[in-house]
Design a protein that fits this description.
Shape: flat
Strand content: 15-25%
Distance between the termini: 45 Å
Number of domains: 3
Strand order of the largest sheet: 5-4-3-6-17
CATH topology of the largest domain: Rossmann fold
CATH superfamily of the largest domain: NAD(P)-binding Rossmann-like Domain
């Protein structure tokens, strides 16, 4: 906001502040302090078209946060040539196709898994008039949002998790924590519908020598703080999650390196150009060495042994080796429920590891078309 304040000092016309103006508290303070005269909402208005109204009503906590991911808006339009949308608002730009409506035949629904897909399915189902119970095996909601929100510049993901929890509380959602559901529990309860959204787990190949070494940790466990991370870190996997994980620790002052088997970073998945360029620039600025075209051979007492495409091996000394080479869907019990008279659906990462856009949209459309 300081740059807008400087511009306001230099000119005699109104200053409109734009770009990531999704925090109403920051906007209100800037207005009081005379740093800007008005605020332009672009991506935040896709996430929640009622942003101004909720602010005016004194209900800023109800604003659905824009997470700045660019997967639904800029990335779809500029990089993929697709119609604009929004990762967190499945109705955005499609309001005429998805007007609010109640279910013609309300159902008793069991949702298993309290990640973003499970929370969106529960929220949408209650609003549609269904009876819903959400089960989560841990003592908290959020699933993969917890690790995602710990990555640099991803604080809005944590905001999204908290927004869902507030919305579910306001809807009086029936949520059961610390309860791991089995297929027998589902058959015994016999709901009309069960929605399985049990997430995914980090890929930790047993074929890699030393994968169980004390220095080895998955990116999810590292980001959630389940295992301590030393001062010298090697991140194996140069996808978006791997690069963001590397920056997470580089910003803490740790010495970080990235190893990627492909010739280029973030090349096996769609990453919006703005996000990709930003991460590459940040890694260069913070002097994060990148070893592309190298694969991990072993994790040992010294660190990570890697091998280039021409067969040359070298050891990267490390206190911690963070594995970020992908996610694998967790088994969801779907097969055990076939033929029981219960409608069974899989959504989210347990169907196919993806991103927030996919999880939210799949959950919303499943309920909308039920």
């Amino acid at each position: 906001m300081e740059l807008y304040a400087k511009a306001k000092e230099a000119v005699k016309i109104p200053i409109l502040a734009g770009s990531r103006m999704g925090d109403p508290w920051i906007c209100a303070k800037a207005l009081r302090d005379g740093q800007a005269d008005a605020f332009v909402l672009s991506r935040p208005s896709l996430a929640d078209p009622e942003f101004p109204k909720k602010t005016e009503l004194g209900m800023p906590e109800k604003i659905r946060p824009c997470i700045g991911c660019n997967f639904g808006c800029i990335g779809r339009v500029e990089d993929q040539g697709l119609p604009p949308a929004c990762a967190v608002n499945p109705r955005a730009m499609r309001e005429s196709f998805y007007p609010p409506r109640k279910a013609t035949t309300p159902k008793n629904i069991m949702v298993v898994g309290g990640g973003v897909a499970g929370m969106e399915a529960t929220r949408a189902a209650i609003q549609a008039g269904h009876t819903v119970t959400l089960y989560e095996k841990s003592d908290h909601l959020g699933g993969e949002l917890l690790a995602a929100g710990n990555r640099p510049l991803k604080g809005e993901v944590t905001d999204l998790n908290l927004w869902y929890q507030r919305e579910l509380k306001e809807l009086n959602a029936n949520i059961v924590l610390n309860k791991e559901i089995t297929h027998r529990d589902i058959i015994s309860a016999h709901p009309d519908v069960v929605i399985l959204t049990v997430g995914a787990s980090s890929v930790m190949p047993r074929s890699i020598p030393g994968i169980d070494h004390p220095k080895s940790v998955s990116a999810i466990d590292a980001l959630e703080g389940h295992k301590p991370v030393g001062e010298t870190v090697v991140v194996v996997g140069g996808g978006e999650i791997g690069c963001e994980t590397a920056m997470h620790f580089a910003l803490q002052g740790k010495k970080v390196s990235v190893v990627e088997a492909m010739p280029n970073l973030m090349s096996l998945e769609f990453v919006p150009n703005q996000c990709k360029s930003m991460l590459e620039d940040l890694m260069e600025h913070y002097h994060v060495p990148v070893y592309t075209g190298n694969r991990l051979l072993e994790i040992n007492d010294a660190g990570a042994v890697i091998q280039s495409a021409d067969g040359e091996s070298k050891t990267l000394e490390a206190d911690t080796v963070v594995m970020s080479i992908g996610m694998r869907s967790n088994l969801s019990m779907k097969e055990a429920l076939i033929g029981t008279g219960i409608e069974v659906y899989e959504i989210g990462s347990c169907k196919k590891p993806a991103n927030i856009f996919k999880a939210v949209h799949d959950a919303f459309e499943l309920i909308y078309n039920m």
